[in-house]
Write a structure and sequence with these properties.
Helix content: 25-40%
Strand order of the largest sheet: 7-6-12-13-14-11-15
Mean pLDDT: 95
Structural class: alpha/beta
Distance between the termini: 36 Å
Low-confidence stretches: 1-8
Largest sheet: 7 strands, mixed
Radius of gyration: 22 Å
Number of helices: 18
Amino acid sequence: MPEYHIHMSETFDAVVVGSGPNGLAAAITLAQAGHSVQVIEGEPTIGGGLRTAELTLPGFHHDICSAIHPLALASPFLASLPLADHGLEMLQPPLAAAHPLEQFPGVALKRSVDETAELLGEDAAAYRSLMAPLVRDSSKLVEQFLGPLRPPRHPLAAARFGVYAALPATLLAKRFQGEGARALFAGCAAHAILPLSRPPTAGFGLLMGLLGHSAGWPAAKGGSQSIAGALRSILESLGGQIEVGHKIDSIDELPAHKVALLDIGPRELIRITGDRLPDLYKKMLRRYRYGPGVFKVDWALDGPVPWKDPACSSAGTVHLGGTLEEIAASEKMLWKGRHADQPYVIVVQQSIVDDSRAPEGKHTLWAYCHVPNGSTVDRTDAIESQIERSAPGFKDLILGKSTMDTREFERHNSNYVGGDINGGIQDLFQLFTRPVPRLDPYSTPLDGVYLCSASTPPGGGVHGMCGHFAARSALKHMKD
């Protein structure tokens, strides 16, 4: 693909700093409106959290950060793009997710609500009554909540979801009697990276569940980099340009432009704007809160993971951590600066559906656990032990491994402060008011300068909606 080199004499309608999914979404939205767009990326490759590399051994392709993409299919903006025409193929595993339990085998998130409910025994009716109405409204709900706070277009659907979503996961889980349903829900809710006793963790559990039923939890063929590649192809087909390997240290370095959209976090905004921001706004940015980070391990394996529970062998994602109570306890410890002996672990096995990830007969595996923000503790043994508990003999298959702690995540992407891959805590106080309470959360006090990162609504995830809404805000400015 061609690279473009910035000439300071050039003038663009819009300059986008950062080429993560939000930066690329912002650039495409502006280019679709007929504007000239230049994207500037500090790293040698585009993608932000959408990068793939041979981290372990030659021929084994690992996703550096994001690995499974339910929001990519559900995103109204990404769904509007001809991504398949630009080389993207999303692969659905037979099961979206599985949750191994010693006393309750076969717990899994299937595409069908009824088929999932049938696995949950005495909680089948309760699960069906909770999830079926939400899944019927899934497109309405995703459209409403993947964006800034605004009046609902479908108030009844939003109210039905909101009455449950605002609860702590541990409270909503009480509607289930059995260990299987409670654990399945806890595994989904823990994606919030919040204590499960806090609101709105129930909302995260419901969202992950309804996405599994409505869109699935797919992997991108060839690696997550393929999503960035397709977005790049679309942008270039619209006349947009991309410059890589150019780190911006000051907004004065940008070529002439009408608007600038920055796929960066609050700290980076302060850094590159210098003394231009008002003191009060900078004070509010400095109060922006980051949550726990992650410790990740990638493995090159000599064969598929030997799961004891057959459901896990068909699942793209496996949640480890035991019962609801065990997961809640391990996640709560993070907020006290401690590491659980048996952490909640998210495992992704893309190679069960994508044979391009590894040489013939071999497999890749991707997993992380949550850790206190900024932790430098090596959690490899804890993660491998959790997998070994549910898959005896797993360690014997390891051909190579690669690890990333919170420092390496932040070094890879400066938006992941302290290893926080959501770009900031996503609790009730910071879900829609990120990075500061403001009528237009994408605008800044600087004329023509906008934020489009995951530190704006709706937050983390591969959906591009932060960038899309920031670009729409900028387009209003350009019409004035």
